[in-house]
Design brief:
With 65 residues, the protein is α+β, with helices and mostly antiparallel strands. 20% of the residues lie in helices and 43% in strands. The protein has a two-stranded antiparallel ribbon.
């Protein structure tokens, strides 16, 4: 079996339910979640996906040595 490197594009829009003392704090918490590359949803509350876009951008065979 051959090995391939496949580029993909994945974009998802979501609505997060965040508990905060103010709207400013809620926005700050949401930004922190987005900046955390290891964030796992749902974070504090529930999450609702509102759209998702995916596509394969390119593929190439990986040469074996």
């Amino acid at each position: 079996m051959k090995e391939y490197r496949v580029g993909v594009h994945y974009q998802e829009g979501a609505v997060l339910r965040i508990y905060a003392d103010s709207i400013e704090q809620a926005k700050e918490k949401a930004q922190e979640i987005l900046e955390d590359s290891e964030a796992v949803f749902p974070y504090e509350g529930e999450q609702k996906t509102v759209h998702r876009e995916t596509m394969v951008t390119n593929a190439e065979e990986v040469e074996s040595n």
